[in-house]
Design a protein that fits this description.
Layout (H helix, E strand, L loop, with lengths): L19 E5 L3 H12 L3 E5 L11 E4 L1 H9 L3 H5 L7 E6 L4 E6 H5 L8 E4 H14 L3 E3 L4 E6 L6 E5 L4 E4 L1 E4 L6 H7 L6 E13 H4 L3 H8 L3 E6 L2 E8 L4 E9 L6 E4 L1 H7 L6 H7 L4 E8 L13 E3 L2 H4 L8 H17 L6 H33 L5 H11 L16 H6 L3 H10 L6 H5 L17
Parallel strand pairs: 1-2, 1-11, 2-7, 4-13, 11-18
Antiparallel strand pairs: 3-6, 4-5, 8-9, 9-10, 12-15, 12-17, 13-14, 14-15, 16-17
Helix pairs in contact: 1-5, 1-12, 2-12, 12-13, 12-16, 13-16
Bound molecules: flavin-adenine dinucleotide.
The site of flavin-adenine dinucleotide has 34 residues, from helix 1, strand 3, strand 12 and helix 12.
Length: 461
């Protein structure tokens, strides 16, 4: 079954139900939320602290669930120009022995209309930015948000920018990433991200050198995603930009105190010198590298302010280890669900926003916690030392059909349908209709303004 995921049409609204929404952070999550909220018929201003809208020079894997979201935003044609569609994923032992493979097309066919796509982050980011602007987003760089204030009746919020300027909104969405300031504003306390004990070396190689080596050329000419699993470390690589670039990520024990810093190439090469000879060869082609300390954000009790004028999404709430390649996917899904919930709004009153944010959180909380936890399990499974546990992991990966909690998680019969088959439209509708927080049914059948709600008075800061 091929399937087709229709693009959502923009809702046209009267002024009295059109929210002025400020999205803080123009990362993948923030831009995705902007698109989704614009499609719901509201106005969006995106505030970004950096001097220009840009992404790190690295690759990103987009799984079927997030390809569904992106297509529903009308981005299929634009993204297809930049996507690499790898044939399969190969899981290898650290010495290069193939443990097991999974064909991506077969897997995606379980979720009709979806794809496994690989992108250069800048391409994906640019497509999201273009779509947001096409739909009417205003985007301001050099705009670091340091605080959010809620007005006494709870109907509006102000973001406070670094030089003290304030901008008013009906709703503020904090999408400011793993080191989120807005999370701390919401919690009214400091709340640093939690180190995982791992860090990532991220490198991009030009494939022209690789093509001269017969052992490496096939990694380019036959695009596949490769994982090598070894004691305390693993390596991932895949092709980008129609075969022009080769993305490599090395996940190793954390030896640093800072979150991002220039890495030492010699140090990195030494860690992998005894691995599959293709890895030292690839690393010998690398001239400089960055290392990223990997942290997580376990969930929050509440993602939104009681007023209904301030909420959070993406890494700010639920940053995960990248071992399921799902962090950005969760941020995009957050934006998609938030937009769906806000599409039901029929006036600007607080009770409607509160209801929308309650349903949003209800849909997203358990799912994103599942991903963070599974990322932690993948860390354990990927980094086993040689021995009985590693042998058992490899044996389970070779079983047909594969058992629950196997290391190739995209095939795990318990996880995969939930992770990859997720449909944000169905989740949102289902939550409203069958599993909704009190009052959602009334809102669905055109909110009448009678739902009682606590009114928050006062500032956050
Ligand atoms: C090594 C690695 C590999 C990964 N691979 C994958 C993968 O293959 N697939 C996948 O789905 N995910 C992957 N991820 C996860 C993914 O990158 C993140 O989950 C995703 O980028 C989070 O998006 P975000 O918009 O929430 O945050 P971010 O992308 O961090 O964006 C936050 C934005 O907010 C801005 N900002 C910060 N503070 C402020 C402020 N006070 N005011 C205004 N603006 C502010 C920042 O400048 C930034 O632009 C990977 C992560 C890592 C580290």
């Amino acid at each position: 079954m091929s399937g087709y995921i229709p693009a959502k049409l923009k809702i046209m609204r009267e002024e009295d139900s059109k929210l002025n929404v400020i999205v803080v952070g123009a990362g993948l999550g923030g831009l995705g939320a902007a698109i989704s909220i614009l499609l719901a018929g509201h106005d969006v201003l995106v505030l970004e602290s950096a001097s220009e809208i840009a992404e790190v020079g690295a690759g990103i894997q987009i799984l079927p669930n997030s390809s569904r979201v992106l297509q529903s935003w009308g981005m299929r044609a634009a993204l297809s120009l930049h996507a690499t569609r790898p044939k399969q994923v190969n899981m290898r032992g650290w010495r290069g022995n193939l443990i097991s493979s999974m064909n991506f097309q077969d897997s995606a066919s379980n979720y009709p209309g979806t794809f496994y796509w690989d992108f250069h982050r800048a391409s994906l980011h640019q497509c999201l930015l273009d779509r947001a602007i096409e739909l009417g987003a205003a985007v301001q760089c050099n705009s670091r948000v340091v605080d959010v204030r809620i007005c006494r009746d709870g109907e509006r919020a102000w973001v406070v920018l670094e030089p003290g300027r304030e901008i008013e909104a009906d709703l503020v969405v904090g999408a400011d990433g793993i080191n989120s300031k807005l999370r701390e504003v919401m919690l009214r306390r400091e709340d640093p991200a939690i180190p995982t004990g791992d860090l990532a070396y991220r490198l991009l190689l030009s494939t022209s050198e690789m093509m001269k080596d017969p052992e490496l050329a096939s990694l380019v000419t036959d695009p596949q995603v490769n994982y090598w699993l070894g004691p305390d470390m693993h390596a991932v690589n895949y092709v980008l930009k129609g075969g022009k670039l080769f993305n490599m990520v090395l996940l190793v024990p954390d030896d640093t105190g800072a979150s991002t810093l220039e890495g030492n190439v010699e140090e990195m090469r030494a860690l992998f010198k005894d691995w599959d000879p293709r890895i030292p060869k690839l690393l010998s082609m690398c001239e400089s590298v960055y290392k990223w300390r990997l942290c997580i954000r376990p969930g929050m009790d509440s993602w939104s302010h009681a007023s209904g004028a301030f909420t959070l999404l993406g890494d700010a709430v639920h940053a995960t280890l990248p071992y399921l390649a799902s962090g950005a996917g969760m941020s995009l899904e957050d934006g998609a669900v938030l937009g769906e919930c806000l599409s039901r709004i029929t006036s600007k009153v607080s009770a409607e926003k509160q209801m929308a944010l309650r349903v949003y959180e209800h849909c997203r909380k358990g799912r994103t916690e599942m991903v963070v936890q599974r990322g932690n399990l993948q860390q354990y499974l990927y980094h086993l030392h040689d021995g009985p546990e590693q042998e058992d992991r490899d044996r389970r990966m070779r079983m047909v059909p594969t058992p629950p909690r196997e290391a190739l998680a995209w095939r795990d019969p318990e996880l995969a349908p939930k992770l990859l088959g997720y449909d944000h439209l169905k989740d949102d509708n289902h939550t409203f209709l069958h599993n909704s927080p009190p009052g959602a049914a009334e809102m669905l059948s055109h909110y009448s303004g009678q739902i009682s709600h606590p009114v928050f008075a006062g500032n956050l800061a």
